[in-house]
Amino acid sequence: MYTGGVTMSVSKVRKQVYLEAEQEAALKRRAAEEGCPEAELLRRALDSFLSRRPPGRRNPLWDMVGVVKDEITGGSVNHDDDIY
User: Fold this and answer.
1) DSSP 8-class letter at 71
2) Exposed e or buried b for every residue in 16-26, given b needs 16+ CB within 10 A?
């Protein structure tokens, strides 16, 4: 597919994001250093971020649910007694 001077793969989807000015400047510098398009750097960064937690794995904070004592009596007033 060819769009306005940019050759794009059919498998890619266009997304619009807003960057901070400092992020844009750093992205431009890095793209120039590596000699690749900014979009490629963004795709690599997204791949890296998404690969940190295996797909389907839930947030580890959910493992804390239910670790407090049973029979909580005072709610938020006595929460230290119920938790510790």
Assistant:
1) S
2) eeeeeeeeeee
Find the mean pLDDT for residues 55-60: 73
Tokens of 6: 């940019």
What tokens does 42 get? 């963004």
State the pLDDT at residue 26: 97
Q: What is the mean pLDDT of residues 24-40?
A: 97
Which residues are 3's β-sheet partners?
A: 6
Q: And the tokens for 13? A: 């989807």
Sign of CA dihedral 57, 15, 7, 9: positive
Tokens for 41?
């750097």
